[in-house]
Amino acid sequence: MIAFEHVAKTYAKEIATPAHTALADLSFTVTKGETLGLIGANGAGKSTCIKLLMDFIRPDAGSIAILGQTPAQHTIRSQIGYLPETANFPSNLTVLDMLRFTGSTCNLSQQDTRTASEKWLRRLGLWDARKRPLRNYSKGMQQRANFTIALLNDPELLILDEPMSGLDPIGRADILALIAELKNQGKTILFCSHILEDVDRLVDRVLVLHRARNLFVGSPQVLAEQQDCPTFMEGYLNLVQQVTKNA
Amino acid sequence: MLSALKRIAAIARLVLIDGLRRHALMGLIVLSMAAQAGALLFFDFIPRDIGRASSDFILSLAWLSGCIFLFFHGVQVIALDEERKVIYSLLARPISRGEYVLGIFAGLAGLLLLLNLLLCGLGFGTLLIIKQLVPPVYFSQFHIVPYLLAWFGLIAMELMLLSVILLFSGLVRGSFPVLLISLSFYAICSGLPVVREAVNQQAARTEGLTGLKTMLLWMTAIFPDFDRLDFKNMIASSAPLPDISLLLVNFGLTISYLGLFLWLACLVYQRRDLQ
Fold first, then answer.
1. Could you give the angle at which helices B175-205 and B210-219 cross, rounded to 10 degrees?
2. Which residue from A37, A162, B6, B264 has the highest number of Cβ atoms inside 10 Å of its Cβ?
3. Rounded CA gap, B26 and B31, in Å?
4. Contact criterion met (CB < 8 Å) for B89 and A80
């Protein structure tokens, strides 16, 4: 489903900003039906991985394959559901406008778009607010609206960048349940999060990124065992501390 | 091809709806229409040649409204999409960068056409009323064909500016730099014919300006001469319409210019990182 091979990315120098290596020689794969969690501190390279997958930026070296093609092949995005880290929409539009846009670009019929929109808007508690401008939504509502848009086309692959961002505890539990439901349906999921508890609960494997490099790929239990720690969270912290100390 | 057009139309629809719901744009439309209706008061202050002055006033006002739209809304669309990261939500769908640029162009062009259509209709009515209110000696000629030609030229100029703005939006980040560069571009386009004329007059008196004359002539390829599409003086004039071949050349060049700049805008946008 996803294959990164020796991918490197450096953000070019700009006025008052030095060049910065975001990824160095990163390789990993995600197989069909698998859930992979991308974890790491701020600036570790998680969002860069996702931006590369979505073709928002291009790698300096290495190759990326997604659904058997390169990310530059824009038509594959009809099989992808993407949730950006910050939910932002054109300020005067409603969620219905965005859903119509999604349906139309993903070649869904008007009837299918209507049916799927109603299903997801009701499921995510946005049905009553569907005609309100998105600028009037709270952060949590915007995040749920983004989920509705990402799931409308029944994607094979879900790429979720901080899916719990801005959600209250009830919203978070609801989204966790939804991701678990999608996982059980056999969807392939790549998601990055700072909340290690959620990662531990949902993923089959984790990819630990630290300062643009891959520190660990494997199941959370293996990481805990490898670090001789009782929990995955402690195992992760131990690994990062060791690497920082040795650097 | 059909599905590409469908995707371009989907982006254009979003831009159109977003623009139509934007209070600032609604305000601009209302203000432009009110100012245009103000020509009914304005013509009272003109001592002679009322037809020419009124039509000039109406078309100039429409040009000003178009420029406000382009420089304060058009410039912001792509830049704000990037600054607010809206672009990630849009390009997460199966849309190529080129389709995104063309969709934005189509949406903004649709809004511009709508603005001009309203002003054109209102302007026509205003000129008809003025013509009926003044003696024929002050406003003898008024025909629909030169009037429509003048609007067609005006829209062509605005679309050319829009394509340039989209190209600059791909080349630099942020709405303010795009605004500054676009305004500079427009200033050069407006000033170049004057400079060329001055250099021609100078060249007639002295020698050795051939290089400068050639350079100024070639600069027109990058900085188009908008005067070629300015037909507002013909609205109330008895002079014959320009030769059809000249019109075809001018509008043909406009279409080529639009095509070239949009192609470049798509190319630039296709290659850059969206950080």
1. 140
2. A37
3. 9
4. no
Alpha-carbon dihedral A216, A222, A227, A231, rounded to 10 degrees = 110
Q: Which positions of chain A have pLDDT values less than 70?
A: 247
Is residue B270 within 8 Å of A55, Cβ to Cβ?
Answer: no
The whole-number pLDDT of residue A59 equals 92
Provide, as residue numbers in chain B, all residues whose Cβ is less than 8 Å from the Cβ of A76. 94
| Residue from B102, B160, B133, B165 nearest B39 by CA | B133
Helix residue ranges per DSSP H, A54-193? 95-105, 110-123, 139-151, 169-184
Residues 6+ apart with CB under 8 A from B161: B67, B70, B182, B186
Could you say which of B3, B22, B81 has the minimum Cβ distance to residue A92? Answer: B22
Size of interface A-B (CB pairs under 8 A): 91
Q: Residues B119-151: pLDDT tens digits?
A: 999 999 988 888 888 888 778 788 888 899 999
**Strands A35-39, A205-210: parallel, antiparallel or unpaired by DSSP?**
parallel
Distance CA B145, CA B240 (A): 11
A48 within some domain: yes
Asked if B92 and A91 come within 8 Å (Cβ–Cβ), the reply is: no
- Residue A56's domain comprises 2-92+156-246
* pLDDT, mean of residues B18-46: 84
Instruction: Kindly report the CATH number assigned to the domain that includes residue A230.
Output: 3.40.50.300
CB-based contact A199:A193 (threshold 8 Å): yes
Number of structural domains, chain A? 1
DSSP code of A17?
Answer: B
Burial of B246 from C-beta contacts in 10 A (0-12 / 13-18 / 19+): exposed
The tens digit of pLDDT for each residue in B159-191 reads 999 999 999 998 888 889 999 999 999 999 988
Residues within 8 A of B (CB atoms), A 99-158 only:
100-102, 104-107, 133, 146, 149-150
E strand residue ranges, chain A: 2-11, 20-30, 35-39, 61-66, 80-83, 157-161, 188-192, 205-210, 213-218
Instruction: Kindly state whether residue A139 falls inside one of the protein's structural domains.
Output: no
In a domain, A119, yes or no: no
d(CA A59, CA B243): 54
The Cα–Cα gap between B185 and B222 comes to: 9
pTM: predicted TM-score of the whole model, two decimal places: 0.90
Contact B67, B159 (CB under 8 A): no
Count of beta carbons in the 10 Å neighbourhood of residue B55: 27
Q: Is the dihedral of CA A158, A159, A164, A165 positive or negative?
A: negative
A127 occurs within a structural domain? no
